[in-house]
Amino acid sequence: MAAVSKSGSKSIAFKVTAYTFCALLTVLSLLPFIIMIVNSTRSTPQIQENALSFIPRGHLMKNYAVFAGRDFQPLVGFKNSLIISCGSTLCNIYFSTMTAFALVAYDWKLRKPFFTVIMAVLMIPAQVTAIGFYHFIHGIGWLNSFLPLILPSIAAPTTVFFMRQYMIPSLPMEILQSARIDGAGEFRIFNQIVLPMMKPAMATQAIFSFVASWNQLFLPQVLLTVNEKKTMPMMVSLLNGDSYKTEMGAVYLGLFLTVIPLLVVYFLLSKHIIAGVALGGVKG
């Protein structure tokens, strides 16, 4: 009995320690967001007096009014970034999953060399090809267009690699063979059988792809020069200008506006990730 009691007390102590540590990590993770949200509702003198506060104030609309008549246009940047990020994410996920399906489901002679080339592309930084890419886009007349920021997402080596690794153990070839025997075409098999089975992996990569596209600053600055086409990160970069150095509340509000879509996308797709982890645990 004493041994059981001692073991039970150790288990309780471990749980208390683990829960306390997790709670501490949660607080530390949420603290910057809470400070950012609260400061976006405060005036500059209030922030200068006490930057660390958890009490919201009533200066939200006044801070937003600071943007009026200046280069920072949150609604324009929000719309442009949303178009680019959604289009880029859809192209990335769909065509990368299709490429991974071709690497897993079909046995063709150049399959391994093709996959090696895809992995080699991962080693090439985007900045190395930026000059040639700019000349190409300029030559076909696509400057100040969203298409150069969306269509290249069709070729996403990182997503292809992740999808392939997820697909190898979780895609039963027997189902594909049965569908072929029943007369289903390859596109129908991919769209109606493979894609639903890949939802957890697609949701995970959709979050990463959307965040990467939303935060992209280098290529948009090179390709988009018209104010009406500027993305949200380009707008945020303007907050470092001299005209905003005395408007700290407006700066916090601008940063908060850039984070909202990322949080929405995560909360919409996180349930699919959790479902995929739970399904994997049941299979294991």
UniProtKB/TrEMBL annotation:
Main localization of the protein described in the UniProt heading: membrane
Domain annotation ABC transmembrane type-1: ranges: 78-269
TM helices/strands, residue ranges: 12-38, 82-106, 113-136, 142-163, 206-226, 249-269
Keywords from the UniProt entry: Cell membrane, Membrane, Sugar transport, Transmembrane, Transmembrane helix, Transport
KW Cell membrane (keyword) present: yes
UniProt GO cellular component terms: plasma membrane
Residues in the signal sequence: none
InterPro entries: MetI-like (IPR000515), MetI-like_sf (IPR035906)
Topology term for the membrane: Multi-pass membrane protein
GO biological process: transmembrane transport
Compartments, record wording: Cell membrane
Family the UniProt entry places it in: Belongs to the binding-protein-dependent transport system permease family.
UniProt xrefs under PANTHER family: ABC TRANSPORTER PERMEASE PROTEIN MG189-RELATED-RELATED, SN-GLYCEROL-3-PHOSPHATE TRANSPORT SYSTEM PERMEASE PROTEIN UGPE
Protein name: Multiple sugar transport system permease protein
Phylogenetic lineage: Bacteria, Bacillati, Bacillota, Clostridia, Eubacteriales
